[in-house]
Amino acid sequence: MNVDVQSLVVIFVAIALGSLIKGVTGSGLPQIAIPVMAIFLGVERSVVIMAIPGIVSNGWLMWRFRAHLPKTRDLPLLLPTGAVGAVAGTWLLKALDPRILSGVLAAIILVYVVVKWRRPELELSPTTTRRLSPPVGLAAGTLQGATGISGPLVTTWLHSYRLAPPVYVIALVTMFQVFGAVQAVSLVGLGLFTPSRVVEGVLALIPMLLFLPIGARMATRMSARTFDVWILVLLAASAAKLAHSAIWG
């Protein structure tokens, strides 16, 4: 990877921590791993490398929670527009100003976290979510393609449904999987998936495969309330990181 051993250790820990949190909540791997990796490898290279662990981790969680897929809602509305957004976002990977994207997204998430913390019973009606799901899917897919990270927006949106934890996880990772697959195809089409980056992506599977199952086992022992707190903490941390990126780059 053309980086020193100390940097590789930091990257390994970031992927391991992100995988552990993803096993618990269905999200967190790219939000944690890509910003850390980008310090040493650059944004574009980090996004490409993490495409492989993203697809594998989402596929594993989809299989684990597959029995709960029929209990989800709005996926037929979210997925097609998200796929379109992922293609568009990949093409815009070098053109969009990530600081503007980070600032807007941080503000949205922060407002939601504050409202949800003050009103934990808050839940969007099925009518509202059906109407808003297509533009949300498009925005989330665009973020995935442009930055490799759609988790903060998707997590915020699905959390407002107040789904049972297993249903929430399968809905979340299904969206991530579709976005990630479309993004990967787009990256190949743009010639960004070089042989060396494929090797790096495969090597990144090692910490992911070690820590993802640990997080998934932790999730099975959690109450719905504890799971809810984990999600809100993850969202708050994401908002803080995005705000930092927007202000200081």
Portion of residues within helices? over 70%
- The figure for the number of domains is 1
Q: What's the N-to-C terminus distance? A: 24 Å
- Portion in strands: under 5%
Number of strands: 0
Cα-based radius of gyration, to the nearest Å: 17 Å
Outline:
globular
Any overview of this molecule?
With 249 residues, the chain is mainly alpha-helical. The chain has one domain (5-248). Helix content is 80%, strand content 0%. It is built from eleven helices and no strands. It has helices at 5-25, 29-41, 43-64, 75-91, 98-118, 126-147, 151-159, 165-189, 195-203, 205-220, 224-248. The longest helix is centred in the C-terminal third of the chain and has 25 residues, at 165-189. The protein is globular, with a radius of gyration of 17 Å. It starts with a helix and ends with a helix.
Would you summarize the structure shown here?
This protein has 249 residues and is mainly α. It has helices at residues 5-25, 29-41, 43-64, 75-91, 98-118, 126-147, 151-159, 165-189, 195-203, 205-220, 224-248. The protein has 11 helices and no strands.
What is the element layout, followed by pairings?
Layout: H1 5-25, H2 29-41, H3 43-64, H4 75-91, H5 98-118, H6 126-147, H7 151-159, H8 165-189, H9 195-203, H10 205-220, H11 224-248
Q: Which key phrases capture this entry?
A:
single chain; 249 residues; mainly alpha; 11 helices; 80% helix; 0% strand
